[in-house]
Fold this sequence. Notes:
alpha/beta
Amino acid sequence: MWSVANEPASELPPAAHYFKTVIAHTKALDPSRPVTFVTDANYALDHGAPYVDVICVNSYFSWYHDPGHLEVIPLQLTAQFENWYRTYQKPIIQSEYGADSVPGLHSVSAVVGTALTGQQMSLGEGGTTGPGCAGSVPRAAGLGSTRTSELCLCLPGEDSKICPWQWQKMK
Length: 171
């Protein structure tokens, strides 16, 4: 898959023409691969999303918004996937999520920047799939368990889990 941008200002109106042009050119150069860009814009405001084959979203729930409240992540993540899919009817990859931590900073509760919060994000409270991972979202499939390298592909409303390498089967 080709990605033509990372977190651009795709909520600005000129982004529609820009991404339509860039993505069409990329597909002309290599029609064998899907094309995307990674967004951090709101689904309702993203002007580039109509032109991609796969929606890639970077999200840091409980980090920039609701800091330290890990319990809200499954709700926010599910709502995000449902909103993106309902709007664009395209597969979704959670391209980044997570919590960073400062080495040596510890707390017994979920405090942004501590090692415990980062561990809870990756592993979940019981050491299983964390709230930022694909396992907490219905109809989502994931790869790996590291925070910013997590890839999960979600087709809300579908019965099956789709893995990124199954792109050809989806066409």
